[in-house]
């Protein structure tokens, strides 16, 4: 039976105490019971399911007097915009928390810190644009996490690292354009992943995640539709149906850059001109066979570089040619000069040689004599 304001299950505890202890202790424990265990005003509490239902009350702050042994806390359809870090402090018995259909934006990183027994967390239809990396660090028993209909545009690396028990994850209807495989790898028990209704960019940035998805499906996981929004040629196509071969060009991009991460600035190579589909081996030129030299950001650089190379090569060639011509001319002149000199020398040498010869002959003659 639903009961409000400090009756029902809370009273029965108090009665137990009454029988056990003295009047004073009882009175004290009654006070304690009244302050700790009352059902928050206007909420509905069920003593057998330990459920506190505060939904649809137009609340802008969460009641501070939620009983500490509450297992189910429903706060959906309110007007909550922010949560303080301590709002769920000490509610370690909580299993099920529903904050759907509110206006929550930023969630303090330690807001779920004490919820070590939480298995269900519902944050559907809020205004959450970013998650803190350590938000879900302590909720290690979480089995269902619903973040659908929010404004998430990316997930911080490692945000799901501790959710090894997670079975269901919904990220439907957010603003996600791509995902990192590493973010999902820790979710070893994941069975169902909802990713529909996001503006997916099916380019190199999503390739590794597609690999992960294939592995996930192989091990029996279910993923709902993942429709590409960009590039134009793949719009409306289901990412799971796009053959892996269409991402072959991505490794060429990586080779070109010499690094494993593809284009972190968010201008994916295939945005304007997506891979294959229409014309698989369209251009024979070697440069355009590496699809991603199509990158607008990249191309002018390489073209400029090429022109620079040509100019430098030309200049160097020219200098070498001129030097060779000069050297050749110098060689010719030197050779002709030397030739002339030798001729001159030879013209004089015979005379000198003759006189020497005569002298020697004379010497020989004299010595013989
Ligand atoms: C209270 O919880 C019990 C156990 O879950 C359930 O059987 C009962 O119907 C609930 N009462 C109301 C009024 O919801
Ligand atoms: C939580 O419990 C601790 C000790 O059990 C206590 O010091 C602290 O005040 C409690 N916090 C809240 C918000 O109830
Ligand atoms: C989790 O719940 C169980 C029983 O439901 C309780 O014994 C345990 O203390 C809770 N864990 C924490 C960390 O509070
Ligand atoms: C989201 O919540 C608002 C109010 O909080 C509500 O008006 C709207 O219908 C909800 N949207 C969906 C899709 O549930
Ligand atoms: C190559 O990768 C590095 C980071 O590894 C990045 O800073 C750089 O902009 C990339 N260059 C090109 C042309 O993509």
UniProtKB/TrEMBL annotation:
The chain crosses the membrane at residues 306-339. Residues 257-295 are annotated as: Disordered. Residues 38-72 form the LRRNT domain. It comes from Geotrypetes seraphini (Gaboon caecilian). Residues 198-251 form the LRRCT domain. This is Leucine-rich repeat and transmembrane domain-containing protein 2. It is a single-pass membrane protein; Single-pass type I membrane protein. GO terms for biological process: axonogenesis; positive regulation of synapse assembly; potassium ion transmembrane transport. InterPro entries: Cys-rich_flank_reg_C, Leu-rich_rpt, Leu-rich_rpt_typical-subtyp, LRR_dom_sf, LRRNT. It is found in: Cell membrane; Membrane. GO terms for cellular component: plasma membrane. Residues 1-33 form the signal peptide. Keywords: Cell membrane, Disulfide bond, Ion channel, Ion transport, Leucine-rich repeat, Membrane, Repeat, Signal, Transmembrane, Transmembrane helix, Transport. It comes from the Eukaryota. Belongs to the SLITRK family. Residues 270-284 have a biased composition (Basic and acidic residues). Residues 258-267 have a biased composition (Polar residues). Coiled coil: none annotated.
């Amino acid at each position: 039976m639903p009961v409000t304001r400090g009756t029902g299950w809370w009273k029965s505890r108090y009665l137990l105490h009454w029988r056990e202890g003295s009047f004073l202790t009882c009175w004290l424990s009654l006070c304690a019971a009244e302050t700790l265990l009352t059902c928050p005003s206007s909420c509905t509490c069920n003593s057998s399911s330990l459920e506190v239902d505060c939904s649809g009350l137009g609340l802008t702050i969460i009641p501070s007097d939620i009983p500490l042994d509450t297992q189910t806390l429903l706060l959906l359809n309110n007007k909550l915009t922010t949560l303080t870090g301590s709002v769920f402090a000490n509610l370690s018995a909580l299993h099920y928390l529903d904050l759907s259909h509110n206006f929550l934006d930023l969630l303090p990183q330690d807001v779920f810190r004490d919820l070590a027994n939480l298995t269900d967390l519902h944050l559907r239809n809020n205004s959450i644009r970013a998650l803190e990396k350590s938000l879900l660090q302590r909720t290690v028993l979480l089995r269902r996490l619903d973040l659908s209909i929010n404004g998430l545009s990316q997930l911080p690396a490692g945000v799901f690292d501790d959710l090894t028990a997670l079975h269901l994850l919904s990220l439907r209807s957010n603003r996600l354009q791509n995902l990192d495989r590493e973010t999902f790898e820790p979710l070893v028990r994941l069975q169902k992943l909802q990713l529909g209704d996001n503006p997916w960019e099916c380019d190199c940035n999503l390739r590794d995640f597609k690999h992960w998805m294939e592995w996930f499906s192989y091990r029996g996981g279910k993923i709902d539709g993942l429709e590409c929004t960009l590039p134009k040629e793949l719009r409306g196509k289901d990412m799971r149906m796009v053959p892996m071969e269409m991402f072959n060009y991505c490794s060429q991009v990586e080779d070109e850059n010499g690094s494993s991460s593809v284009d972190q600035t968010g201008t994916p190579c295939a945005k304007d001109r997506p891979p294959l589909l229409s014309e698989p081996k369209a251009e024979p030129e070697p440069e355009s066979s590496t699809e991603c030299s199509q990158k607008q950001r990249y191309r002018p650089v390489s073209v400029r570089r090429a022109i620079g190379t040509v100019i430098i090569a030309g200049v160097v060639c020219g200098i070498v040619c001129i030097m060779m011509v000069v050297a050749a001319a110098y060689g010719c002149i030197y050779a002709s000069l030397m030739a002339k000199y030798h001729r001159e020398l030879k013209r004089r040498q015979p005379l000198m040689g003759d006189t020497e010869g005569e002298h020697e002959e004379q010497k020989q003659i004299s010595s013989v004599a």
